[in-house]
Design brief:
Elements: E1 17-29, E2 34-45, E3 50-57, E4 61-69, E5 72-75, E6 77-80, E7 89-99, E8 102-110, E9 118-121, E10 133-136, E11 157-164, E12 170-173, E13 176-181, E14 184-193, E15 200-203, E16 206-211, E17 214-218, H1 223-229, H2 233-244, E18 253-256, E19 265-266, E20 271-274, H3 287-294, E21 302-304, H4 311-329, H5 331-350, H6 371-374, H7 378-393, H8 397-411, E22 414-416, H9 418-429, H10 436-439, H11 444-449, H12 463-477, H13 480-485, H14 495-507, H15 516-526, H16 534-546, H17 553-562, H18 566-577, H19 583-593, H20 599-608
Parallel strand pairs: 1-11, 17-18, 18-20, 21-22
Antiparallel strand pairs: 1-2, 2-8, 3-7, 4-5, 4-8, 6-7, 9-10, 10-15, 11-14, 12-15, 13-14, 16-17, 19-20
Helix pairs in contact: 2-3, 2-4, 3-4, 4-5, 4-7, 5-7, 5-14, 12-14, 14-16, 16-17, 16-18, 17-18, 18-20
Length: about 625
Amino acid sequence: MRLSQTDPSSYSNADELIIRHVDLDWTVNFEKSTLSGSASLYFKTLRDDVEEIFLDSSELDIASMAIKTSAGEVPVSWDVGSPVENIGSKLTVYLPTKTSGEFTLVVEYETNPKASALQWLTAEQTCGKKHPYLFSQCQAIHARSIVPCQDTPAVKFTYNATLRHPAGVTGLMSAVKKKSETGVSYFEQKTPIPSYLLAIVVGALVEKSIGPISSVWAEQEQIDESAEEFSQTAQFIAEAENICGPYVWGRYDLLVMPPSFPFGGMENPCLTFVTPTLLAGDKSLATVVAHEIAHSWTGNLVTNRNFEHFWLNEGFTVFVEGKIVGRMFGNAARDFHALHGLSELTDCIKTQLADTPDLTKLVVDLSDCSPDDAFSTVPYIKGSTFLRYLEDLLGGPEKFEPFFRSYLNTFKFKSVMTDDFKKALYDWFREDPQNEVFLERIDWDRWLTGTGMPPVIPNYDRSLLDACQKHSTLWAENDLETIKASPLLSEKLTSIQIIEFLAQLLEKKKIQDLTPEKLKLLDETYHIHKTKNAEIRFRFVRLYIRARMLDKMEEILAFANSNFRMKFVRPVYKELACWPEAKPMAVENYNKVKDQMMSVCAYTVSKDLGLETCK
């Protein structure tokens, strides 16, 4: 069932009226785990005589609603529909008269302690152990749990916020902080954003400058390590501007999140959230920051109109991220980055999406599925592979990048569908008749609605990958003594190559003699227990699972409990669920820690364990 014409996941009647600006006044209550206060929604009608507003909400306790007029506030009535799991409720507001033009709706309300967008941490769950901590994650459709809104990326608005919080902690939002007093912070976001980019964090945070427009924020215990890990941020921004055009958001700060943050990063404007699992000690995972910076154009500036076209956000962002990597570290590194992505996509299709092939399409149907259920690496990697295919087909970067910049400039501040991109591509390249033969080769149906891996894999430079393949073949096809005697063991691999080597090993249908002794040698050879790199550790504990090493369950679960990044915990739990002896321990562990997870993580892991089905 599609909830509205504009967006299958939103009840809003955004074809009749849209929110242009929001004023928030929030009080943070750690004792009650709530935000309370008001939201003033500034509407513009798109047709005459609107009588009702349909908004999205999720478990909000609404105290009052009123239309603000020159003569004062006029109370209005409203109705909250029955809640739908993972969607929320339809909030219908009845306007006192047929309305045209612009008007303001003021809503006084309080969030639910279990609001799906918010994570409340006790002081004990933080590094410093002294102050509680609050953070949000509104993507994809969780903003409706913190503000009644048109929770669709088809609608963009500016916002101002007054945030009241305990003294002694810092409040930050996805906006520029204008001023702060004891216990009160004031914010302004002058560039229109979709609701999923609304963000808040409150905690014992300190900052350290890492560039002309950038600081990193973290708890005191992690601030120096974080500043060093992300010291390339200013260079990433400069390269992104060369590719995409001017940076329009004013600030670009980074916030290192608590371990319960469910994603690698979240591109909240002015304040990117990143997982602490990026703190590898050698900058080897810092390209996630390049990805989030790229979102400042692809996603934040030009936005998918609904999440069926999520590849327009994520595929484009991975494409730009790869270009940043190429400019900084060379084209071989760019192509290795892409090939590693294809390994992750292969793994995702075989494990996470094995039972849902329709979700391996680039453009998905979310009529009966929430965006959280559809979330995977497909829009990221299949999408970026499609763009690389188009770039190679249409004359390489020197021909494609001017079009790409033009596309971003044409659609900035707007929300788009795949057909908008397709039309822009044809309009640009058809100016040269010689391109017609190449445009005719593009099989849009196979790329957009075909299942499985990309229909064409570009001709990537495989030089950095070949070493990984040699190592994975050695370990998969030989016994212990042959491996020990191999000269390959003296050839050093970089951290990223070790990640790829382990990924390839996991992809092998058969690994000869996968014994504790073999894994012990692998551990010693590549110094796995000495590394802080979570991507390496993630793949190594999955080899324990593959080897059915029940005596390593404590270590496997310790990794699963060390962070609740869905990229890591979902495959681990899914694979434990297929191991009869281990599944009861996995379920018991999940039940112990699920309250420390964000709701999106707890819900999807419960499905991976077979405790809940997709609704």
